[in-house]
Amino acid sequence: MKINRKVFVMLIAVMMAALLLASCGKEDEPSGSDDPNLGLWQATTVEVFDEEYPAEEIYQDGFEIELLKDGKCKFRAEGKEDKYDWSIEEDTLSISSGGNVFITALINGNEMVIDDFMSMGIKITLQKEGTASQNGALDNDPDQTETAENGSAELTDPIVENDTDSGFTSSELKEIYQTLSQDYDNSELQGMSYQEICDTYFGGAEGVLDFEGETITIYKWIAGDNPSDYVQVSFQDYDESGERTAGGIGSEFE
Asked: Directed axis angle between helix 194-201 and helix 170-185, to 10°?
């Protein structure tokens, strides 16, 4: 079985963004509103396997990083959004969750380059909003790439236990996410276990296991009146104690 190279690239790039959304030396503290790095950065090109594609062909709903004051940032991809921390040393940007850096990029004027996104060899170039070139990469003729013998692209599928709702409506989950988001901004989620998150924010309601990997676990709380709406929290072993604690948060509401 063969799959189109461009489709294979899209699978890898979108999967890595999805995992990230579910999951900042002395650095200059990014606090002032006059910091030239503040603002919205939008992907313009994605390079994989030494081939470059317009970003909109890979991330059809966009790939954006918004750097905010006080070291906070928003990461958006495929219509989803998570909040993280950022810092910068000279021209090197670091994006982290709970002190764990997972994205580094070089900033040169109005251009930001992530040279190795999620350690997958994916190079993403972003431009500051309002300065991006309108000329995307050339539309290369697609090559063919062999998949594994079982017909898959050798990507690890997320684990979804089931589509059982969490007992909350979309409206209730929106209110919960607002509280989660405020506490995240105040660094109050750090060190909280999965059960503590359940008890504190969801009245003891268990989440649905969405993904479990070597370094990260992601749970979702799905709306009963609209299964497309959910709140998610990722957990990692930040202090190498063997216990995974809360890190990133995310949500999707139609």
From this structure: 120
In terms of phi and psi (left: phi > 0; alpha: psi -120 to 50; beta: otherwise), the region of 78 is left
Distance CA 59, CA 122 (A): 13
User: pLDDT tens-digit profile of 5-29?
Assistant: 444 445 445 555 555 554 433 344 4
Residue 7, class by beta-carbon neighbours within 10 Å (0-12 exposed, 13-18 middle, 19+ buried)?
exposed
Q: Where are the beta strands (DSSP E) in 184-229?
A: 208-212, 216-222
Largest CA distance in the chain: 54
pLDDT band at 73 (very low <50, low <70, confident <90, very high): very high
* Cα distance between residue 213 and residue 159, in whole Å: 9
The per-residue pLDDT for range 187-244, each reduced to its tens digit, is 899 899 999 999 999 999 999 998 777 677 889 999 999 988 999 898 888 778 889 9
Q: What CA–CA distance (Å, rounded) separates 197 from 180? A: 9
Of 236, 232, 250, give the one whose Cα is nearest residue 191. 236
List C-alpha distances in Å: 35 to 19, 47, 128: 30, 29, 13
Separation CA 44–CA 247 (nearest Å):
28
Q: Measured between alpha carbons, how far is 125 from 106 in angstroms, rounded to an integer?
A: 10
Strand ranges, E, within the chain: 2-4, 39-48, 51-54, 63-67, 72-77, 80-89, 92-97, 100-108, 111-117, 122-128, 144-146, 208-212, 216-222, 230-236, 245-252
Task: Work out the angle at residue 154's Cα, subtended by the Cα atoms of residues 153 and 160, and round it to the nearest 5 degrees.
Answer: 100
